[in-house]
Specification:
The complex is a heterodimer.
Chain A (H helix, E strand, L loop, with lengths): L1 H23 L1 H21 L7 E7 L4 H13 L2 E7 L2 H10 L4 E5 L3 H6 L5 E7 L3 H22 L15 E7 L6 H32 L1 H7 L4 H29 L9 H25 L3 H18 L11 H8 L2 H15 L7 H21 L6
Parallel strand pairs in A: 1-2, 1-3, 4-5
Antiparallel strand pairs in A: 3-4
Helix pairs in contact in A: 2-11, 3-6, 7-8, 7-9, 7-10, 7-11, 7-13, 9-10, 10-11, 10-13, 10-14, 13-14
Chain B lengths: L4 E12 L2 E12 L3 E5 L6 H8 L7 E6 L2 E2 L4 H7 E4 L11 H11 L5 H12 L14 H13 L5 E5 L7 H16 L3 E5 L3 H4 L4 E6 L2 E6 L1 H8 L2 E6 L7 H5 L6 E5 L2 E6 L2 H9 L7 E5 L3 H12 L8
Parallel strand pairs in B: 3-8, 3-9, 6-7, 7-8
Antiparallel strand pairs in B: 1-2, 1-4, 4-5, 9-10, 11-13, 11-14, 12-13
Helix pairs in contact in B: 3-4, 3-5
Classes of the chains: A alpha/beta, B alpha/beta.
The complex binds adenosine-5'-triphosphate and magnesium ion.
Magnesium ion (MG) binds next to helix 1 of chain B.
Chain lengths: ~375, ~300
Amino acid sequence: MSAFATSLSRIGAIFFKEMIQMRRDRLTLGMMFIIPIIQLILFGYAINVNPKNLPTAVHVEDASPIARTLLQGLESSGYFDIKLQTQDPAEADDWLARGKVAFIIAIPADFSEKLIRGERPQVLIEADATDPAAASNAIAQAEKIFELALRHDLKGPLANLNAAPPPFDLVLHSRYNPEAITQFNIVPGLLGVILTMTLVMITSIAMTRETERGTLENLLAMPSLAYEVMIGKIMPYVTVGLLQTTIILFASKILFGVPFQGSLMVLALAVGLFVVANLALGFTFSTLVKTQMQAMQLTFFFFLPSMLLSGFMFPFRGMPEWAQGLGQALPLTHFLRIVRGVMLKGASLEQLHQEFLAILIFTFAVGLLAMARYRRTLD
Amino acid sequence: MNTGFAIDVRDLTKKFGDKLAVDNVDIQMPKGQVWGFLGPNGSGKTTTIRMICGLLSPSSGEGTCLGYDIASEARSIKLQTGYMTQKFSFWSDLTIRENLDFVARLYQMPDRLQVVEETLETLGLTHRQNQLAGALSGGWKQRLALAAVTMHKPRLLLLDEPTAGVDPQARRDFWDEIHRLSLQGLTVLVSTHYMDEAERCDKIVYLAHGQKITEGRVQNIIRQSGLITFRGEGEGVRQIAEAIKQSPGVEYVAYFGAALHISGHDRAALERAIGQFSENNAKWQAVPPSLEDVFISMMGAAGQDKRFAS
Ligand SMILES: Nc1ncnc2c1ncn2[C@@H]1O[C@H](COP(=O)(O)OP(=O)(O)OP(=O)(O)O)[C@@H](O)[C@H]1O
Ligand SMILES: [Mg+2]
């Protein structure tokens, strides 16, 4: 009994010591409460696997009221948001390749004529299938939407056309990933995710290690400028990032048969830029924290929204506007668009220049913050 | 302001938040000398040294180091100064050679490989050059650090407790090396807690509670202190230590082996205190106070540390 009591008091001693230490480490404690809240909000509000208001281009050659009714039906369904009406199929194609729209809906010139004659005209839907999950719901709804829209117009002598099956054929054309293979979407995305996780962590830890071990004082006492330390610290990990990329690309080709449509040069440029962006971020993190443990936590804290809001795990367009805004600020979002664009769509540098610009701005902002925060002295 | 001084700082003050760590310290140290920097734990030695070499920016005060402004020309100071930190701060996951090589590269030494080779040789570490620095014993780490900070031939050495935890033989070798470097024209400021090391210095600066209490040659400091010390020897002497400490005029009592030292500024009072215990068969005689006696009495005179509110 007395052995039990002394053991209990020793447990108490360790318990109180641990409580005190936990309270002192504000950052860790904060993370323990902030992370669940953020996860709740992200999973609860931001993520939607049934995206609506998907940007759509329509290519209508039929000027009849029936065609107009179809378009109105599309818009009022809430699934499609018509961003472009064009006569030029090449323009619609370009919007799809740039990712500005998720669908092209084409209504041919003789649509209403054939419909009235009962000849079952075709409506063509071309979907960007680089993210198969994102488009599938809207496509599933399309036939019903058209049917419903036509029901109002097909009255009187045309009422007989209202019988099931619908009096037209919906032709679906999955572009870029015709078989809607999930790996084609996930594997290029993984490249960005893996680079983000490992590189941000590795740099933030490499820097805080100097602080934690006391070697920073020595480094600062010797002649070295802030940018020299930063570049020197980052360079080895650029190599690591490029090696990781090579491995992932080979694996994606050999193991999953992911196609590579575009230019390797554009992809290499994107990888280089993205690697530097992540390393600059890791360096910045290291200037904000004191220990390696805190650096890990901050990395995780950044990694979580990167996974959820970038369009890696869930369709970007399914998120509410505030979440899309947050997502736009993350380099991974833009990198994913570039990688999927280059590998699956064969998009050109010109078509992707906005995504490049976004990562570039991020890198600059973070780099400036890092330089401002880097301590040349010990205070 | 730009004089022949290696270190010339005035009114140097450092606050951490509202904590005053260094309080209006002046140091004018001529080139080519070896000075000791003494003071109890937390008195501000490390903080002062860091300000001198530009690692901490002073809250107020100004000065030059090797003729360069400590606030704006830290880079020039770093190029010509060797600073050995109190805690071993070389890379424990690099080998001895890799550490030296890294330092040599940072200072852009033209004949890098040769310098590293020579340094390893003088250190006597050539055969262990591929061991990790972290695996060295405490004393060897200190030797490695001294070698590393002198490799670029600095004009000023700032050594922060370089011999803490080092055995007596190694400590003597260390000081021989310091004097050898000083003969070559180097200026050396060494912080230490060892009195015998203080006595090897041209001059010492004594800090307490962030303030400079005294400065000068060891003999002068002892003489000027006006401290009087009596040494008592005999069987019963240890038993009376507690009682004699309470006597008026006795500022401090210390054991020296079997003997007892009592110190104070008032000779008559000290003699009265000894007289109280005349039935005790201890033998008392006046002895010159040691530097340690003087410092401890100074610390007593400086009173409680009033810098920090907590
Ligand atoms: N970064 C810091 N933040 C807050 N307080 C500090 C910091 N560095 C030092 N101090 C405080 O300033 C005072 C002076 O410290 P310093 O390290 O200069 O003393 P020291 O004379 O070198 O002591 P020691 O002999 O123990 O090495 C101490 O009270 C210390 O707690
Ligand atoms: Mg110190």
